[in-house]
Amino acid sequence: xxxxxxxxxxxxxxxxxxxxxxxxxxxxxxxxxxxxxxxxxxxxxxxxxxxxxxxxxxxxxxxxxxxxxxxxxxxxxxxxxxxxxxxxxxxxxxxxxxxxxxxxxxxxxxxxxxxxxxxxxxxxxxxxxxxxxxxxxxxxxxxxxxxxxxxxxxxxxxxxxxxxxxxxxxxxxxxxxxxxxxxxxxxxxxxxxxxxxxxxxxxxxxxxxxxxxxxxxxxxxxxxxxxxxxxxxxxxxxxxxxxxxxxxxxxxxxxxxxxxxxxxxxxxxxxxxxxxxxxxx
DNA sequence: GACCAGGATTGCT
DNA sequence: AGCAATCATGGT
Length: 281
Description:
The protein is α+β, with helices and mostly antiparallel strands. Helices cover about 50% and strands about 10% of the residues. It contains 16 helices and 7 strands. It has helices at about 15-20, 65-75, 85-90, 95-100, 110-120, 125-140, 155-160, 160-165, 170-185, 190-195, 200-205, 215-225, 235-245, 255-260, 260-265, 270-280, and strands at about 5, 30, 35-40, 45-50, 55-60, 145, 150. The strands form 2 sheets. A 5-stranded antiparallel beta sheet has the order 1-5-4-3-2, covered by helices on one side. Helix 5 (about 110-120) packs antiparallel against helix 9 and helix 5 (about 110-120) packs antiparallel against helix 12 (about 215-225). The model has no long low-confidence stretch (mean pLDDT about 95). The chain binds a DNA duplex through helix 5, helix 6, helix 9, helix 12 and helix 13.
């Protein structure tokens, strides 16, 4: 396919989104040229911004199939408008946040397996060390396509032993989780793409059966793997801290104090979470 | 040096 | 069902 041209009928914070992507050293982001290279299967697709916040426009090069095009549209939230979401939250107690961060999309990870691995690695670690570990993981076991790092295949990770990861500063428990989940995927027992058509509840139930995948990781899969719109990880400390700030509280709010607002924020709970995270970046 | 971090599991009441 | 200890290590 030739170059694709895309125009969006809604406001979109491309530069801000790119800056967030650039926080992960594995992402091939070029802020000067406003491009990012995305590895899909064996080819690299380049996204470039040619528009503005008010009138977003983009070019896509390297797309080889309609399926890849749809995948890109989905990853970057080009296929659904952000306007109804802004309108919805303008009537809620998060109005200020949604004014301030208007046009922030949910950008999903580039592969479902990458999402799960990244989440397990990030569990309980501060962001900077978590990124170090993730980068080390990908650059040791993954591969490069046209200069862009790609996560390894589950089969490759399934073959590792715990000590290999331990020597790379993974805890043995984290190493067990990573190898165990990768093994289940490699053997076909856990098929993430097939699972992705199920309901949120079913997916959480299925995923949390595996050692190393708890509620936080399962919810992260729904939100940043699949881009599901209506969930709020109440157990996430970052969200608790953000709400404490927004509501000007002495202490972090309890799960009950948070979930009391779910009716008000639904059916876009995920955006509430995303904009709250942005509030503490 | 304590305490926390975009948690999860295990074992104990 | 609910709590506490445990896990490894870097950041503050």
